[in-house]
Amino acid sequence: MELGVVELSRLQFASTALYHFLFVPLTLGLAILVAIMETVYVMTGRPIWRQMTKFWGTLFGINFVLGVATGITMEFQFGMNWSYYSHYVGDIFGAPLAIEGLMAFFLEATFVGLFFFGWDRMKPVTHCIVAWLVAIGSNFSALWILIANGWMQHPVGATFNPDTMRMEMTDFMAVLFNPVAQAKFVHTVSAGYVTASVFVLGVSAWYLLKGRHLELAKRSITVASAFGLAAALSVVVLGDESGYTAGETQKMKLASIEAMWETEPAPAHFTLFGFPDKEARETHYAIHVPWVMGLIGTRSLDTPIPGIDELVAKNKDRIQSGIIAYDALMTIRADKDQVPADVRATFEAHSADLGYALLLKRYVDDPRQATPAQIQQAADDTVPGVGILFWAFRIMVALGFAFIAVMIYFFFRSSFKGQSYPRWALRLAVIVIPFPWIAAEMGWVVAEFGRQPWTVDGVLPTALSASQLSVGDLLFTLIGFVAFYSVLFVVEMGLMLKYIRKGPHIDVKETEAWMARHEARLTSDRGDKPYAAVPAGE
Amino acid sequence: MILSNLIDYETLRVIWWVLLGVLLIGFAMTDGFDMGTAALMPFIGKTDMERRQVINTVGPVWEGNQVWFILGGGAIFAAWPPLYAVSFSGFYLAMFLILAALILRPVSFKYRSKREGTRWRSTFDWCLFVGGAVPALIFGVAVGNVLKGVPFDLTPDLIPLYPGNFILKLLFLLNPFALLTGIVSLTMLLTHGAAWVSFKADGVVAMRARAIGSVTGVIFLVGYALAGIWLAIGIPAYHLAAPVVTDGPSNPLWSEVTRGGSWLAAYGERPWIIIAPILAFAGMGLAVLGLRAGREGSTLLFSKLAIFGAISSVGLTMFPFILPSSLNPTASLTVWDASSSHLTLFIMLVATVIFLPIILLYTAWVYKVLWGKVTVEDVAKNSETVY
User: Fold this and answer.
1) From CA B263, how far away is CA B233, in angstroms rounded?
2) For this UniProt entry, which segments traverse the membrane (chain A) (predicted)?
């Protein structure tokens, strides 16, 4: 692939988005876990829960700040690198982003400072509410971002206006309650909850292995495994919902994930393993599981899922129809004051396919002049990178099931085995720490790489969306981002590890005072005091 | 949606032009003192403890303040998509520098005091300085260039174009007039930061802040006056050649624009707008006097007044222009041809009317909880939890 402005812009967007998404899932989940811990503190008054809140809160803060900082890049890059996109769909896409700021980001950012600085300035219950407001704010933030993203995947409630040469909103409620957006939101935040649960579980397991901070570690595992189990189950169930909506709205993405070249008789099989080959239009060494794909994609046994070749043929028809729309649009634009009624009518009839004609702009300035070969080429372009999608999806799903297994095991040990954990399980929990990130990044790849060649599915091709910058501009910023972000990553990881090694700040005096107040409750019937000593090393 | 017809398109556009100003002013008033404080910090804090005292005056609030900026970006995207598309990509490398500075800033705030080493801390101190000073300067440079007109064009498909070599374009942005407006904006926020530090800190740090602030305030006054004179005689203005349809479709190419005359002619057409520069001069003058005399609360209010006056004077002078094009004046973006659709503007207004008061309420509550001065003793006592 030749590295032109479009490719470099994509590379930059992908790297900065994937980087941003290293911090977001942990923020989403850890905010809630911290708020849960503080709630327990407020309800029981036990200092250990306050210390847990502060400890995990510190790690949350180190992570949060990079999520915020790299999020600014995301908001700016639409305008900087995708200016035609911003012009073309800003009327719809900008609104959820702005509402995100108004409703969610202001909330989380205003209260996060108070969370860290306000411990001694308010009552515990007020501080706990502040922690919840941060958690609610960050999760609402995800909602609005995914409403915006859902519109790129499945553009609803908008129509093209020939006068302004852009898409304009016609139905805000349709944008808001876009089924794709809703499915994506719940799937994505659940993935964040799993990430944070695995993180808390793994770090706590490491403490248990080292024999440190047992009080904090055991309680943290209990919270993380319970919350993580619910999250791991819902991430898979809601991921299935995402798959189902894709079956309805993004058939090409679904067929590509499955490397399903031809339409198969319903119910379609699921390809567990194989090597998709785009040139040969077949999947080598494929292992099939009958029926499963038909069930996931259509939730029925008799609805066929269209294969890639059938979809390409359909898209070719839509390109032809789009050319008619484009021709009508040029007539309208030539003399905007005197447009014959039939031209308007022709445009309205074909305007839903206008985006398909724009696919031709890669090959010819005026889509009306396109040769049949170019039209075929553009239709073939509508197939995303099947091999990458196929594997990214399978890695994500396999990891999703693995997290359920891990969470079931730890939940079981914490609930029914007196919080005793074998060393192999603790080691496993430490090893598992990075994997939710891999799953989350794979999820991004499936969703966004699977959207290609479109920025907005069926409306605006990626090749047309980029700003008219120079390769020099792009190289300068791409190298700048990579260098800058790499340094930040090293700094962040260093601090995370430092604070994990350092462990919680256990206030012995506070703990002893609390124990003295509750002496009666902590004394057993026989008169001994099993909880009397503060464990060594803390 | 029928509801959106409650307010006509023309009015909505004016409302959103005002709200754009409100967001920029809100940003400069709140995040402005964060930037000013960060830029002053290496000079008014000599020891580590003094520097931590300075940083912690903004420690709990900078994050919320920064959202004014994020929201500003989002609101421009939603309400003025062509402006967002053209300005962010047209100022590409300048935007990248702002971005880098704005990423550096939160990271430095958060990470600086998380390790002991002198080198670690002094590195982040200078990162904070850059994170405060560079955006403050570049915002002003951008305003100067907007007043001169920006070299962009639009194709009939409305694809923004910005011909030329990318390095040369960046250098071209740093022309003398833009540098002057850059200094005006930098000194405005430095003075605002000084007013904040003298309000929120005590002792030697507050004293040094007042000393620097009363100098930067005077530089602002001189620079602002010079920029005004330069604008009057040296920068040709933009005009709509023919009366425009104020509630028509947002297509910048539909209105004809010519260049010539002076921007300050606006003060002849709309004499009442003279109030904006008067507020800028008076606010900053009183802020300087306040800094000299050691008054705290009122000084901060006066420097806010100066910000209000200075930013609104630019908007009111240029109205209805938002982003003039020097390359092809007809492609210039105005209030009447660069907005979102009627429906989107209406929905965004509803969202703003609901959420902005709530935001102001809880922000006020947070400031109230955090009321009082930050002292060296506070920082030492809570060394583990504060920055």
Assistant:
1) 9
2) 20-43, 55-72, 92-117, 129-152, 185-209, 221-239, 388-412, 424-447, 474-495
Q: How far apart are CA B364 and CA B357, in angstroms?
A: 10
| Integer Cα distance of B227 and B149 in angstroms | 15
Residues of chain B with pLDDT under 70: 1-2
SS3 category, A39? helix
Using an 8 Å CB-CB cutoff, list chain A residues near B85. 79, 83-84, 86-87, 90
- Beta-carbon contacts of A190 under 8 Å, excluding residues fewer than 6 positions away, are A231, A232, A234, A235, A238
Q: Where are the domains of chain B?
A: 20-381
Instruction: Indicate the DSSP class of residue B237.
Output: E
The pLDDT, as a whole number, for residue A534 is 47
The verdict on B116 touching A (C-beta cutoff 8 Å) is: no
Amino acid letter, A12: Q
Select from A311, A271, A307 the least CA-distant residue to A292: A271
Does A444 contact B at CB distance below 8 Å? Answer: no
Strand partners, B321: B334
Residue B161 DSSP SS3? strand
- Kindly identify which residue of chain B lies nearest to residue A88, measuring between CA atoms: B81
Helix (H) or strand (E) holding B262: strand B257-262
User: Taking the CA of residue B96 as centre, how many other CA atoms within 13 Å lie in the half-sphere pointing to its CB?
Assistant: 22
Residue A2's pLDDT band (cuts 50, 70, 90): low
Query: Does the CB of B114 have a partner CB in chain A at under 8 Å?
Result: yes
Task: Decide: helix, strand or coil at residue A158.
Answer: strand
Q: Please work out, in degrees rounded to the nearest 5, the angle formed at the alpha carbon of residue A119 by the alpha carbons of A113 and A122.
A: 100
Verify whether the Cβ–Cβ distance A102 to B341 is below 8 Å.
no
Residues shown for chain B: 387
Closest residue on chain B to A130 (Cα): B366
User: Given this model, what pLDDT does residue A530 score?
Assistant: 57
- Residues 6 or more apart whose Cβ sits within 8 Å of residue A529: A519, A522, A523
Three-class DSSP labels, A161-182: ECCCCEEEECCHHHHHCCHHHH
How would you classify the pairing of strands A460-461 and B153-154? unpaired
Name the B residues in 129-158 with CB < 8 Å from any A CB. 156-158
In tens, the pLDDT along B78-97 reads 999 999 999 999 889 889 99
The DSSP output letter for A457 is T
B162–A468: do the CB atoms touch at under 8 Å?
yes
Residues of chain A neighbouring B1 (CB-CB closer than 8 A): 171-172
Compute the distance between CA of residue A199 and CA of residue A206 in angstroms, rounded to an integer: 11
Q: Which amino acid is at A329?
A: L
So what's the pLDDT on residue A537? 42
Q: What is the pLDDT of residues A411-464, one digit of tens each?
A: 999 988 888 889 999 999 999 999 999 999 999 999 999 898 999 999 999 999
pLDDT in tens, A394-419: 999 999 999 999 999 999 999 888 88
- Say if CB A301 and CB A338 are below 8 A apart: no
Helix, strand, coil percentages (3-state) for chain A, rounded to 5, are: 75, 5, 20
Instruction: Judge residue B333's burial from the number of C-beta atoms within 10 Å of its C-beta, 0-12 exposed, 13-18 middle, 19 or more buried.
Output: buried
Question: What residues in B contact A168, CB-CB < 8 Å?
Answer: 340-341, 343-344
Contact status, residue A138 vs residue A107, Cβ threshold 8 Å: no
Q: Residues of B with CB below 8 A from A166's CB?
A: 81, 158
Over its C-alpha atoms, chain A yields an Rg (Å, rounded) of 27
ipTM of the complex: 0.91
Contacts of B227 (CB under 8 A, 6+ apart): B144, B177, B180, B181, B184
Q: Which two tokens stand for residue A300?
A: 């029925």
CB A44 within 8 A of CB A128: no
Q: Give the span between the Cα atoms of A29 and A19, in whole angstroms.
A: 17
Cis status, amide bond into B329, omega within 30 of 0: no
- Whether B370 sits inside 8 A of A76 (CB atoms) is no
Answer whether A376's CB lies under 8 Å from A385's CB. no
